């Protein structure tokens, strides 16, 4: 450990050290604004912010600035779902239609068989990026669920894992149906209030009561065209918060489902189940090697890790819990090379505070990896994206074209990147101006159907 993080350091010295590192690393990676919290042994040992919440407005990012935590919201929704399992209102392995008779998809087998466990582990097969604006009313999730009758399956039920926003919006509707309480209010009732959260909100009119960050895209960076996504995405990714309150939520899970005052929010058994591997990830290098119930699970050189990331319109969020070290870290950001900031900063914190070495990120192989381009060339497609793999000069190039409602909100509808071999069937890509590599995995299902796994999503080959 450095002098500032040694056991003899004062709380002010520890905070000053990590505030300085946040500022230095954010500047190195051209991150617009960032807010950091570190929870160790049940105590918030550091809280810091740097940069700008909104470039156009010139608003400073502070530790009280609300950022969008994006898909970290999914674990909050999952936690309430497990509390309802505890109470007998839901069951993990009973078909959803038993709890929500209105539920239909375009695939009858999926409709009849999908369970809560499938939704929590992203193995349902429902196309995961069905975004539909169903209005601002409390009935938005009910209206959204009705539209699923026309949504196709990306893969057979339980055949693989594919990150599924759609499944968590559906889950939010299930929670509403069995409790009679809208999802937003259910989060307040079951989590915000028991945890004593004062800077956590969902709806834009609630967030506007605070200093709020906006996302940024591009180089030079500019604010996103739209601040937030449609309300129907709520259970999958609309919570806004500050790191210390995200860490209060993490502490709930580190405490076996109890708040600091001893209030039980969810049972210890359900908390343990959420942290137990349920489904293997075809691409273990992006987030983790497997998924629990809500959390993704990883291993950092022999130490257990669970967590979740979030990405909305120009905002990125990162949460990792290292239970062996009694350590949790949260970083909220709003533009720039945020993934590289996460990697550098969390690596330092995990080592210096927890004595844990973060696993080595994926990179292209140093030596040639033999492969036949013909094995992978083709078109892969699902809702929201069309991916074309083509051969060029003996190598492979991936062209991704965003489709659907979100395409107009993104700075670039299409990107083209060379694939760099890592090992057989696994390649790496890197966005211009970014340091972090991301994997692209080619694999087949048990029935021989070829798929591409990228961004935690499974995309079938269609041509």
From TrEMBL:
Residue intervals of the Beta-lactamase-related domain? 20-345
Mind telling me which InterPro entries this protein's record contains? AmpC-like, Beta-lactam-related, Beta-lactam/transpept-like
Against Pfam families, the record matches this protein to: Beta-lactamase (PF00144)
- Would you tell me the protein name for this molecule? CubicO group peptidase, beta-lactamase class C family
